[in-house]
Structures are given as structure tokens and as C-alpha cells.
Design brief:
Blueprint: E1 4-7, H1 11-22, E2 28-31, H2 61-65, H3 68-73, E3 78-80, E4 84-90, E5 93-98, E6 102-105, E7 108-110, E8 114-116, E9 132-133, H4 136-139, E10 147-151, H5 155-165, E11 170-174, H6 184-192, E12 196-199, E13 202-210, E14 213-221, E15 224-228, E16 233-235, E17 239-241, E18 276-278, H7 290-311
Parallel strand pairs: 1-2, 1-7, 2-3, 7-18, 9-16, 10-11, 10-16, 11-12
Antiparallel strand pairs: 4-5, 5-6, 8-17, 13-14, 14-15
Amino acid sequence: MLDLAIIGGGPAGLTAGLYATRGGLKDVVMFEFGMPGGQITQSSEIENYPGVFREEPPLTGMELMEPWPKQCMHFGLKHEMAQVKKVTKSNNIFKIITDSQEFEAKSVIVCTGSTPKRAGFKGEDEFFGKGVSTCATCDGFFYKDKEVAVLGGGDTALEEALYLANICSKVYLIHRRDKFRAAPPTIERVMKNDKIELVLNAHIQEVYGSTMGVEGVKVLKDGKELDLKVPGIFVFVGNNVNNDVLKQDDGNFLCDVNDNGEVIVNLNMHTSLNGLYAAGDIRINAAKQVVCAAGDGAVAGMEALNYVQEHFND
């Protein structure tokens, strides 16, 4: 039986494994179907991970994550290259059901993250990472004193537009309706910001550019086409929370989740079920930054260590 099963091999999962094994747990397995590293490995430039910086050429996400698996497995973390289908619990023991076999575990940390939804306009996939972004905190600085566009009408879109307005010379906020779904105070702040121009009742037709990246966004508004000459567009149309492993046969979740499917945790990454923890982008109020996911993983790893030692002492 495993002391700890970690579902997901991104920054949160790897760090959880490091802290749990270094703290003394012996049988810790990280389930990740592909190579460890997470979504950040797809990023072309990393500037905001403390203590790791390279000016020219910029550090890539792949380079940032390259040494993590070796370090995190040095103290005994094992990598099981398998797709986890479901996690259940019975008689104080968790069952990890993969595509090929089943494992039992005393504790579980779920770090499967979330995936930004795509809006579906022409050029979105082609220029993703080359001008099309889903993270203002990650990529906003690259557009310092330049004009950018933001797509979306919820809290995240408006909050990120406000964040970008502190960096960029102008922000076009594009929304398909004439009203926003964000909190009233956030809407009021957007309305009062002179650097944000609203483009409402509008749809993006196409993002275009060259091998160098995005050069503009074509928007259809009131039957007329607008051509916004911007080098970057930030898309915030929601996230798909990767919570399938927590869904049970009766349709309910193994632990409490919010209306968006994000796992509800406290400051110690405890879920509503003893012995089950969630870390990284799958949890509520996640900052969706590598440094924060790693912090979550460290907390969850130490909490799982304490739980196993307290409840399974021979």
C-alpha cells in the first residue's frame, strides 16, 4: 500500500512529492501519464520565477522545469506513467484506479490543474504563445507601453484588463454582450479606467500575424469590421477544471467543489475528506502561477506526511 499517491506531475505534484519523501514517507508515487513538468513547459519565456532568470535568450518553461524531476525524485518519489481514471475511498483507504491497474493509498494529493478554454476564433491556436495568451501576470510585461486586447466579460477578464492597464498604453476589452458578468465593484473600476476601451457586442473574427507573432485582431462589431493593430491578445473565457478523477459512479464528487468544479480547500490544502488534499490550479482561488503551485504542493506534501504519521502509526 502506498503512503501517498500524487495525481498530476506539474509543479504542485512534483513539489508535494519532494516534501513528502524528504520528510520521511517511504512509498510515494506520482501518477503522470506523460513526462513531468505541467503546462508551464509550453511557455516560451519565463521571467517571474524568483531566483531563476536569464535575459538573453529568455529562459523557457521547458528549461525551468528540466531539473525538477531529478531533484524531486532524489529522496524516493516514484513516477508511475499511467492515466488515473478515478480516486475512491473506503474504510479509510483510498483506491487509485488507472487505465491498467489499481493501487491502494493511505493519502492522496490531487494536482491535475485546469485548462484555459479556447474561444475558437481563427488564428487562436496558430498564435498561441506567440501573441495569444491566457495569463496577464505571466505575459503582460512583454507588452509594456504597447496596446493589447482582452477577450471576455467575467471577473477574470476584467481583473486582468485592469492589471494590464497598469503596464500597457491601452487595453481593448472585447465582449460579446453589452453587459459584464463581473462583480459590480470590478465593473466600476473598469469603467473609470481611461486606458481601457470597451468594445461591446463584438466578436473576434481572426487574429493575424507573421512568423514573428501577432500583428492584429479583426473584430466584428455592429456589422462592421474593426482592425485592432495590437501585438497581443489575452483570452479569458473560462477554465476547464481537470477534476474527472474525483467524480464518482453516482455523479457526485469525492470531496466538496464549488460551482465551477474547483476543489474547496483550506489554507493547508485540506479538502472536505480526511487524507485528501488538492494543490495548484485545481483548487479554489488558485493564482495560476508556478511559484504558487509549488507552494501549494509543499504545504500539501507536509500535511499528507503528518496525516499518515498520525493515523497509520504501527
